[in-house]
Amino acid sequence: MSSFRLISIRQFFKDISRQKMRTLLTTVGIFWGTVSVVLLFSVGKGLQEMMVTNSKGLGDRISIVWPGVTAKAWNGMPQGRRIRYTESDVREIKENATETISAISVEYRSSAFNMKFGRSTASASISGVWPAFGDMRNILPQEGGRFLNQLDLEKKRRVVFLGDEIAEKLFGKTSEIVGKTININKVPYVVIGVMQKKTQNSAYAGRDKDKGFIPSTTFNSMMNRRYPSNFVFQAKEGVEMASAIDEVHRVLAPRYGYDPSDTKALSIWDTTKNGKFWVNFFVIFRSFLVVIGCFTLITGGIGVANIMHVVVQERTKEIGIKIALGAHKNMILMQFLAEGTLLIVLGGGLGFALSYSLVTFLPPFLLQTAGFDLAEFIGTPNIDTFGTMLTVTILGLTAIFAGYFPARKASNLQPVQAIKLF
Fold first, then answer.
1. DSSP-assigned beta bridge partners for residue 115
2. b or e along 279-304 (b: 16 or more beta carbons within 10 Å of the residue's beta carbon)?
3. What pLDDT is recorded for position 370?
4. What's the farthest any 2 CA atoms get from each other in the chain?
5. Please, what are the averages of pLDDT over each run of 10 residues along the chain (422 residues)?
6. Alpha helices in 257-384 (DSSP H)
7. Which helix (H) or strand (E) is 222 found in, with range?
């Protein structure tokens, strides 16, 4: 048995040497198909992770609410009335919508602020908010700092939390910022924290990195605003955002005399819809990649089947002699299956090796030599387990079907018929 296997292996390599170009093209087809599929899935996974991360940069499970205009008449009141809520209305929502809303904060906002530290100056937007605002909006402090707390709010403290880029404009690339005093419109404020760097692809009044955040009570003592610019709330884990929005209308509608079903009375941006859109988008996108990958690898498999068919024709006499000498059909079958599989393993293995190398080393290489980070454009590509398993499965099935039919034809030949055909 061992001598038969050794002879079969030697015969296989002889066949390859006689069919160099055909073997090379077939192996290259499998190789390139593998590289294409693995890289497509890797880039797709990196892009998906980037979009999910970016969408959460604005906040997780939040809605932003602005004043609106009624679109329906209600209890004798005409449509077209402007609905403007106050801070006490937002407190009312906080107290009465505990079943659906986990956190809420007003936001007073103005861009008419000048910051100064030493000789450094910067113009920035300032938001007056409640302490819950930071966690809802994923505005997290760097080590050694903090966001606003309840005492800051109650005592109207002159403290400020800075976005990372506005902090760099004022202080440069130093980490010793917390505790320093800056002037905002010539009024001293103590810096209590600097925001961690985050990726944010959506905003409603500029990126958080360029803003400052102070207590809403302090903001009002400076600007004397009656109405908040907007308020932000976060739905509880497991609660549909639509239910939380209905609860907001249920609280405010009796106060301002509008139909609770009037969706125009308040202008609401439900950010969870963005997440649902990307989930659906990437389901379709990954399905598209699956189809492309299947056809790409099957094309390579057809090449393997063709070369195996040629091999069977060229070795018909050899097959007849082996059968006449007592070789079992299963031996003939397994020999040709093994030869087809080896071609696919060779091409697929090289394809995986190149794909892994590109995914691992290309992004850092581009950052160091070309000066740009690939992650900024398509995220960080990484080997996708699903894509890898799919590729392995398709390659395995391709190997079986590519070698099976020529092998079956060879194993079913009668010795006399095989020798005559030759």
1. 122, 184
2. eeebeeebeebbeebbebbeebbebb
3. 57
4. 105
5. 56 64 74 80 77 74 94 90 94 93 95 90 93 94 95 96 94 89 94 91 85 95 90 93 94 93 93 76 76 72 70 68 70 72 81 85 67 64 76 73 70 65 49
6. 272-314, 316-324, 329-365, 375-378
7. helix 216-223
**Residue partners of 292: CB distance under 8 A and separation at least 6:** 36, 37, 40
Cα separation of 74 and 244, whole Å? 22
Task: List residues bridging with 83 in a β-sheet.
Answer: 68
CA distance 134 to 149: 10
Chain position carrying tokens 């903090």 = 146
Give residue 383's identity as a one-letter amino acid code: I
- In this structure, what is the dihedral angle of CA atoms 110, 111, 112, 115, given to the nearest 10 degrees? 110
Count of beta carbons in the 10 Å neighbourhood of residue 306: 15
Are 398 and 298 in contact, with CB atoms under 8 Å apart? Answer: yes
Surface-to-core class of residue 146, CB atoms within 10 Å of its CB (0-12 exposed, 13-18 middle, 19+ buried) = middle
Beta bridge partners of 104: 233
Cβ 381 vs Cβ 363: under 8 Å: yes
